[in-house]
Amino acid sequence: MSKPIELTIDGRKVVAEEGETILKAAKKNGIYVPTLCYLEGVSSFGGCRLCMVEIKGSPRLFASCITPVAEGMEVLTDSERLRRYRKWAVELLLAERPHVCSVCVANGSCELQQLATELGVDHLRVDREWTDYEVDLTHERFAYDPNRCILCTRCIRVCDEVEGVHTLDLMLRGKNSKVVFDLDENWGFSQSCTSCGKCSAACPVGALYVKGKPLSEVKKKDLVSFIMERRSGK
Amino acid sequence: MVEEIVVNPVTRIEGHAKITIHLNEDGSVREARFHVTDFRGFEKFCEGRPFYEMPSITSRICGICPVSHLLASAKACDDLVAVETPRTAVLLRRLMHMGQIIQSHALSFFYLSSPDFLLGMDSDPSRRNILGLAEKHPEIAKQGVWLRKFGQSIIESLAGKRIHSSDWIVPGGVKTPLSKEKAEAILSAIPKAVETALNAVTLFSKTLESLGDNVGDFGDFPSYYMGLVTRDGGLEHYDGRIRIMSSDGKIVADQLDPSKYFEYIGEAVEDWSYMKFPYYKPAGYPGGAYRVGPLARLNVSSRCGTRIADGLLKEFKKLGGNGVVQNTFMYHYARLIEIVYCVEKAEEILRDPEIFDMNIQAKASLNRREGTGVIEAPRGTLIHHYRVDEQGRISWVNLIIATVNNNLAFNRAVAQVAKKYVNGRTLSEGMLNRVEAVVRALDPCLSCATHAIGEMPLKILLYDSENNLVDEVGRG
Fold first, then answer.
1. Are strands A61-63 and A12-17 parallel, antiparallel or unpaired?
2. Least enclosed by CB within 10 Å: which of A233, B23, B76, B325?
3. pLDDT at A98 over 60
4. Taking CB atoms and an 8 Å limit, are A103 and B363 in contact across chains?
C-alpha cells in the first residue's frame, strides 16, 4: 500500500495515493477538470493543455494528467486565468483544420464541440486553416478524415498499448503532423491493422469513425478503460 | 446592384443579384436582365468528400427547404448504393416532403407575397409586409402562420427537429420509424389544415377578381413546362418521370428518365450572371426556355390523385387556353392548390397500413460510381447528380436547382414588367415593387433571411442606348 498524500483541490482537503496524478485525485473526489487528449486506460502525455491547473507557489500552469500529487499541494482547477487559457487551446485546435460541425458524423457527441460550448467559444480570434487532406475510405468498415483530426494521439496510444499492434503513428511535425497507418499506407491496405475498431472508439472527434453511422450511435468512450479494467483483473 | 441574401440558397448563390434594364434611343425598354452576381461553389467544394456526407452538406444550401436537398441527395445516394429502399421508408420520406412543401408554400404565399395584393402594390413599403398584414388582416396572417407551423411540425415529428434534420434521411432509407402518438397528432390537425388551405384558395380567387387587368402584365408569356409525373400522368413530387409540355398544351416529351436529364436539358452560360440558363435541348437556346414549380407541375399533370385537389385542378386548368396557364401570377394559385393536395396526401400516407413498419433502411455500401436523384422541390424540379471514385469519394457534382430552371423565365418576366412600367429615363418605387412581385411569384427562395420579409434589398439600374447609367433605384 502506497503512502497516502494529503492535498487541497479547490479548497477541499483530499487524500490521494503516492504517484497518482492531480487529475486522478480530482476525479476520484468528483471534481471536474476538462480533458481532451487524456484517455482512461492508456498513457498520458499532456498534449492538449485542457486539463491545466494552478498550483499555489508556482507561476506556471501544470497539465494535471501528468503532474503527480505532492504533500500539502494547493491546487486550483478553475480560475479566470485557466478559463482564458483553455478557451485559447480550443480555439487553436478549431482553427488548425476545417472543423465543420454541421456536416460531421460526430456532431452532437464530439468532445471538442462539447468543450467549445462549455468554454463559450462562439468565434475564432485567429484565421482558420483550410487544410485539404484526402479522406481515406479504403477500409471496409472505417473511415479516416485527417481534416477533422486534432492530433490528440488517443488512437495511436490505444492501438499500441491496448490492441498491441501499433498500426497508427504520427508523421511530420507541428501542425503538419498527420496520423498515418503503417508507413503512410491507405487504411484498407494496412498489413498490421486488425480492424478492431478501438481507434475509432477512442477518437474524440469525427476523424476516425465507423462508416455509415453517426458517432452518437457508435460512441464507446469508455471502451478502453473497460478493457483495461478487465485485464487488470479488477 | 445588390440584393442581400435574396435569390440565394436554392441557387447556391448567396446574396447578390441585380436587375439591369437597357433602353432604346427613344427611351423605351429594349431588354431587361436578372443577374446573379455571387458564387457559392457547392459543386466544387463537395469534391473529395465521402458520398454519404452529401445529404447533410447539400441540405445546407438552403434553410427554407433543406428537406428538398436532403431528399434529392439521398435519392442520388440510394442510386450509388443500388439498393431498393423499403416501402415504409419511402412513405416516411414522402410524408416529410409533404410537410416541407406545405410550409414552404405557406411561407411564400402568406408571408412574402400576399402583402402585395392584400395591401396593394403601391401601398407604403414600410408596412407592406407580414406585420402590416397582421395589423390589417389578422385572421389571414394567423392562418398563414398556423399552416406553416403545421408543415414544420410534420418534419419535426419525423426527424426530431424542424430545420436541417439532416441525419434522419440516410442512403437506403430513414433512421427512425414514426411513432403512433406523433402520427395521431398530425392526423388530428388535418381537418383544420384542409380548411385553412381552402380559405386561402377562396381568398386568392377574390383577389384575382379585384386585380382585374393588372394580372395580365404579370409575366404572362409562353414557355415550355417541366415536371415529374406518375406513370399515368398524375401529380408527383418524390419519384416519377419527367414530362415536358409546350405552351399550347402539347406533351412534347413524356416519361423521360430523370437520371438522363442531360440528354434533354442543356445548360447555357451567360457572362453577366453566375446562374446557369437551362433550356429544353430540342428547342434550342434560348427558345427552349421552360418553367418549373407549382404552375408547371399543375400544367403538366392531368390529375392530382386526391379528391379536393382534383376538383381545384379542373377549375385551375380553365384559366388558360388548352389547359395551360401561362401567367406567372398564377404560380400563387397553383401553390395553394398544391398545399391542399399535400395535406390530403399526408393523410393518405398516414393511413397506410405499413406506415409503422420497422423495416426502414436497406443497408449497403457503394455499388455504383454514378448516381442521380431527382425530386420536385416546392420551387420545381431539383436534380442532384454525383460521380464517385473507387473509394466512394465525390469526384464530380452537378446540381440543377429549381430556381435555376426558371432562370430564363425570370428574365422574360422581368423584361415584360419593365416594358410595361418603365418608360423614359427615371424609375419609381412602384416599378421596383412590381419587379419584385414578379420575381416573388416565381418564388426564388427569396425568403431565407428574415430581413427579406416583404422587401428585398434590390437595386435596379437603367441604361440608355449608349450603355450609360441614367437612373437607379433601390433599397436595402
1. unpaired
2. A233
3. yes
4. no
Chains A–B, number of C-beta pairs less than 8 Å apart: 36
Q: Is the pLDDT of residue B12 over 60?
A: no
Q: Cell digits for A130?
A: 483550410
Can you give the pLDDT at residue A116? 96
Contact (Cβ atoms closer than 8 angstroms) between residue B166 and residue B70: yes
DSSP B387-400: EE-TTSBEEEEEEE
Is the separation of the CB atoms in B278 and B405 below 8 Å? yes
pTM attached to this predicted model: 0.85
What pLDDT, on a 0 to 100 scale, did the predictor assign at position B453?
Answer: 35
Q: How many domains does chain B have?
A: 1
Q: Do A135 and B393 touch (CB under 8 A)?
A: yes
State how far the Cα of A146 lies from the Cα of A154, in Å rounded to an integer. 14
Question: Which residue range forms the structural domain that includes residue B304?
Answer: 221-326
Query: At B15, is the pLDDT very low, low, confident or very high (cuts 50, 70, 90)?
Result: very low
CATH number of residue A37's parent domain: 3.10.20.740
- Band the pLDDT of B24: cuts 50, 70, 90: confident
Q: Are residues A89 and A30 in the same domain?
A: no
Taken as a whole, chain A contains a residue count of 234
Cβ distance B52 to A211 less than 8 Å, yes or no, reads yes
- pLDDT tens across B175-186, in order? 899 999 999 999
Let me know whether A197 and A162 are in one domain: yes
Q: How far, in whole angstroms, is CA A17 from its chain's centroid?
A: 24
